[in-house]
Amino acid sequence: MEYDFFPSSFGPPVAEFSSGFEAIGDWMSNDIGADAHVIDQLLTMIEQLENRQKLEHEFISAQYVLHMDQHEVELKFKYDAQYSAQLTAEEEHIMSIENGAGCGLTDLKIALQKWREYIMESRSAL
Q1: Model's pTM, two decimal places?
Q2: Which of 9, 31, 65, 85 is the most buried (most CB within 10 A)?
Q3: Where are the domains of the chain?
Q4: Burial of 19 from C-beta contacts in 10 A (0-12 / 13-18 / 19+)
Q5: What distance in Å separates the CA atoms of residue 77 and residue 27, rounded to the nearest whole number?
Q6: Buried b (16+ CB within 10 A) or exposed e, 29-51
Q7: Cα-flanking dihedrals φ and ψ of residue 56, to 5°?
Q8: 42 vs 45: CA distance, rounded Å
Q9: Is the dihedral of CA 27, 29, 34, 36 positive or negative?
Q10: What's the pLDDT band for 98 if we cut at 50, 70, 90?
C-alpha cells in the first residue's frame, strides 16, 4: 500500500493511495480531513486492539464505515437506504468491492500517524 499526501488549494490536504486502496485516501481526505482529534481517536482504538483490550472496533464517519479487528481493517462506503434498496444483491456486492478497501491494522496505524504528522506540519507552515 503506497500513498502520498499533498496540499490542496481548495481545502484540507489530500491523501492519495495506490490502486486498490483509493477508498482509504478518500476517507482520510474527506471524512477525517485535518481533524487531529479524530485521528487521535482512531489511533487510540488501534492501540486498544494491539493491546488486546478490545477484539474489534467500528468507526462510522460521514461516508464510510471502518471495521477493525486485531489484525485487519475493512473500510466500506456507506450507502443510504434509498440508494441501497435500488441495487440488486450482486450490484451491491460489486459496489462494496469498488468502494472499499482493506489492509493490515499496522499499515493503517502507520498511515494515520503519517497523515497526522503531515497535517500538523501543514498547519505550522501557514
Answers
A1: 0.84
A2: 31
A3: 3-125
A4: exposed
A5: 9
A6: bbbbbbeeebbeebeebbebbee
A7: -160, 160
A8: 5
A9: positive
A10: low
